[in-house]
């Protein structure tokens, strides 16, 4: 049995209610502060993103040396990461809907990735944030590719899941973009491909625009230098994919991030919901710019608790969440970036191997056949 499962019964019901009330109060206190400071933050990040993109594409197009070409790739990669993490992800969570600024509305924002925003709001904002780490309900848990809990049945294919993890990271925007296709459910014949035609049309349209922009339009603008532009755009997208995958895995799949069974989460109170978000999340520590480049998902605990609060508020909220956790004797999962990522790799490795009883049965059958 997974050691990180079945730990939702540490607090008594009255304690959970009090725990939830304190976090609700923290949420209300933070909402009351929202205003010009928050708009200035996101607008400043958007300006930095735009400058990095313009400078990066200019250096890529007109570079005369490998050094300026690589510098251009670095700037374009930075722009894509900022747009994906601190801008797009947070705006689409509704963190700035209160501003009534047309550019900052969650229902109309479209980000620079092959995943269309409607699909993201469905699979991530609703499914993942409602059923966080509930096995069989949170389809973000392992992305239907990886076995990350010993509660899940082991199969021989899991021996190769480090390879799958590498491929998922390299093509992360495509994995996220196609997540709503629900290939696992199609294989089980719970749904048909025909049921997914509306999504397929949306995805094809969005992905087609992204491919045309990065791999047709901008290369063509470079004329005979098109190959170097195409390669640079591909590397920038790869950098963004690898970074995004690493950040998300560090927030969700460390050794101390817990999973839950559906029956444990039935009829949850507000306090129980907060408690599950806390136990199923991981933070990591670092500089201010590490937090910005991660979209403040370095504060995944706070993001799961308060997904529609502007993410740059999470650092100040974190210190208060820690005090509340200490008051109730609840563990708060945080550590250095490197340490948390190492535990992710350990978890993938551990779950790649069969349980001892399966391994023993396999050994016994081999001995029996030999005899």
TrEMBL record:
UniProt-listed InterPro entries: FA_desaturase_dom, Fatty_acid_desaturase
A Pfam family of this chain: FA_desaturase
Domain Fatty acid desaturase: 69-334
Protein name: Acyl-CoA desaturase
């Amino acid at each position: 049995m997974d050691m990180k499962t079945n730990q939702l019964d540490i607090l008594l019901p009255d304690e959970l209610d009090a725990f939830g009330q304190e976090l609700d109060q923290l949420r209300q206190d933070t909402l009351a502060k929202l205003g010009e400071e928050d708009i200035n933050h996101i607008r400043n990040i958007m300006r930095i993103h735009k400058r990095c993109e313009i400078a990066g594409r200019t250096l890529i197009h007109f570079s005369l040396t490998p050094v300026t070409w690589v510098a251009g790739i670095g700037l374009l990669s930075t722009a894509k990461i900022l747009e994906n993490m601190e801008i797009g992800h947070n705006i689409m969570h509704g963190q700035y809907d209160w501003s009534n600024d047309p550019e900052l509305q969650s229902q109309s924002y479209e980000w620079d990735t092959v995943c269309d925003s409607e699909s993201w709001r469905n699979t991530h904002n609703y499914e993942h944030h409602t059923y966080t780490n509930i096995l069989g309900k949170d389809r973000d848990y392992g992305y239907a590719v990886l076995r990350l809990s010993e509660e899940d049945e082991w199969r021989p294919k899991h021996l190769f899941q480090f390879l799958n993890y590498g491929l998922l990271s390299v093509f992360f925007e495509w994995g996220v973009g196609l997540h709503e296709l629900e290939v696992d459910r199609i294989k089980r014949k719970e749904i048909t491909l025909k049921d997914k035609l509306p999504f397929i049309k949306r995805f094809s349209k969005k992905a087609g625009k992204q491919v045309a922009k990065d791999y047709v339009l901008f290369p063509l603008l470079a004329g005979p230098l098109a190959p170097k532009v195409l390669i640079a755009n591909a590397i920038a997208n790869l950098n963004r994919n690898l970074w995004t995958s690493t950040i998300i895995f560090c927030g969700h799949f460390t050794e101390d991030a817990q999973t839950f069974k559906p029956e444990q989460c039935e009829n949850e109170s507000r306090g129980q919901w907060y408690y599950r978000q806390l136990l199923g999340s991981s933070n990591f520590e670092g500089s201010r710019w590490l937090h910005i480049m991660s979209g403040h998902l370095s504060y995944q605990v706070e993001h799961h608790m308060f997904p529609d609060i502007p993410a740059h508020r999470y650092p100040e909220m974190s210190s208060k969440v820690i005090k509340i956790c200490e008051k109730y004797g609840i563990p708060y999962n945080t550590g250095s970036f490197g340490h948390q990522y190492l535990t992710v790799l350990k978890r993938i490795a551990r779950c790649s191997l069969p349980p001892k009883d399966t391994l023993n049965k396999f050994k016994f059958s081999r001995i029996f056949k030999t005899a």
